[in-house]
Amino acid sequence: MTLFRFSSSLLATATFAGLLFAVNPAGGQSAAPPALTILSKDGRRTVPLTISNDQELVLLDDLAAAFQLTTRDEPFGALTVGYKGKTILLTPDQALVSIAGRLVALPTAPTRSGRRVLVPVEFISRALTLIYDTRLDLRKPSRLLIVGDWRVPRVTLRIDGGDLPRIVVDASPRTESSVSQQNNSLLIKFEADALDVSIPALQPQPLVQAARLVEPVTIAIDLGPRFGGFRASTQPLESSTRLTIDLMPVSTDAPSAAPPPATAPPPDISALSAPVNGLRVVAIDPGHGGDDDGVKGAGGTKEKDLVLAVARRARGPSP
Predict the structure, then answer these.
(1) CA distances, 52 to each of 140, 142, 234 (Å)
(2) DSSP string for residues in 167-211
(3) Over the stretch 232-270, which tens digit does the pLDDT of each residue have?
(4) Distances in whole angstroms, Cα of residue 24 to Cα of each of 43, 117, 199, 282, 294
(5) Which of 27, 133, 236, 318 could make an S-S bridge to 199, C-beta 3.0–4.6 Å?
(6) What separation in angstroms does the CA of 13 have from each of 10, 42, 192?
(7) Exposed, middle or buried by CB within 10 Å (0-12, 13-18, 19+), for 238?
(8) Helix count and strand count (H, E) for the chain
(9) How many CA within 13 A on the CB side of residue 68?
(10) How confident is the model at residue 7, as a pLDDT?
(11) CA-CA distance, 45 to 36, in Å (whole number)?
């Protein structure tokens, strides 16, 4: 028998807060060779994956280096994987492993290429987690492995609507978040250690241009030229939190400044100064008269006599 021992630090002096994040490959990011992202208190590292018959495989040597495992060849081609006195017995070409007499099924059998052994990534969640002393959370759709008890919610983002888009962000498990505007972007910041986030590719629109991860726990929504404001609300669901952001366009209904009132033209009085041609008659009707005395004053003066006297004075001297 030959005993092989591998030991290495999960990461060398990397800053967890600055490096711990992962983006779903289906979320509009540039294509890259498949790799498993391992997140831990020491930071972030990746190990390459091999795809065979639609199955994702990882080198057992890479797992041994990452998790300080020992591997030992056994008779008849079997292999023992050990960690702190606990072992996993596996046999290439068999989709079963044995852990303390317990058989555990794998989606595909380990394969050997020379001295290198490839195991399905589910080997981590179905076998390694049974002997390891720290919690291992394998999120295969995101190709993400979280080592330890870190707050890494699954976050999905979608945009509904057309002219008045609505951004819907779901975080599972429930995670608090806040929204603020910074220049031409809305920043959605989560109370977490990292995000397991899926961001779709977006077609630029008048109100929203794109969505991207800018920090380990912050998503930026790049705003369009017609953006005028937003309204955000949070709704707790059964096992998640839903953040809804309604985008509003710049208002086009604001009244324009009222023009100054037009100045009325001066009245035309030219007719008053025109020379008189022919006879003009002005009639003066004093009112009352005859049997109609009108009102009487305190001294007995009759209204008809008063208005008649005024009319005569207005007429002027008789011709």
Answers:
(1) 16, 18, 43
(2) EEEEEES---EEEEEETTEEEEEESSS--EEE-------SSEEEE
(3) 999 999 999 999 999 999 876 655 555 666 666 776 666
(4) 18, 27, 7, 100, 103
(5) 27
(6) 10, 7, 21
(7) exposed
(8) 6, 24
(9) 11
(10) 32
(11) 8
Domains present along the chain, CATH in parentheses: 16-147 (3.30.457.10), 154-249 (2.60.40.3500)
Which residues make Cβ contacts (< 8 Å) with residue 242, sequence separation at least 6?
168, 169, 170, 234, 235, 236
pTM value? 0.63
Q: What angle do CA 62, 65, 66 make, to 5 degrees?
A: 85
Strand order in the sheet with 136-139: 43-48, 35-40, 144-147, 136-139
Is 36 a residue whose pLDDT tops 60? yes
d(CA 193, CA 70): 31
CB 124 within 8 A of CB 136: yes
